[in-house]
Specification:
alpha+beta, 3-stranded mixed beta sheet, globular
């Protein structure tokens, strides 16, 4: 009878892995696009978290480049009501300026 594999702590049954040509650039993209967290560590794949999902990112070399596709489901951020002018619209950066530019 085969033994059942148990994922390590923090991993899920399926863990996506990307093999990229620019490890640092890929991690920076994931941070900017998906509010991902995690660091690049030279001797092993980067373990990057997007929400509760772990994504492993590996530089090409030991493995061939391999494309990745993500379907990401994010909650919309809650917007607080405007406190500057008491309007009923949610606060948006473009709606109100804190200070006018100097002439």
């Amino acid at each position: 009878m085969p033994m059942e594999a148990v994922p390590p702590a923090g991993y899920h049954t399926v863990t996506p892995r990307m093999v990229v040509s620019d490890l640092t650039g890929a991690v920076q993209f994931l941070r900017a696009a998906f509010d991902a967290t995690g660091d690049v560590i030279a001797v092993r794949p980067a373990e990057i978290r997007i929400g509760e999902t772990l994504v492993m990112v590996t530089p090409a070399g030991a493995r061939d480049l391999f494309p990745a596709f993500f379907y990401v489901y994010r909650r919309r951020p809650r917007l607080s009501p405007c406190t500057r002018c008491r309007c009923s619209e949610p606060r948006r950066a473009a709606r109100h300026t804190v200070r006018r530019p100097a002439s």
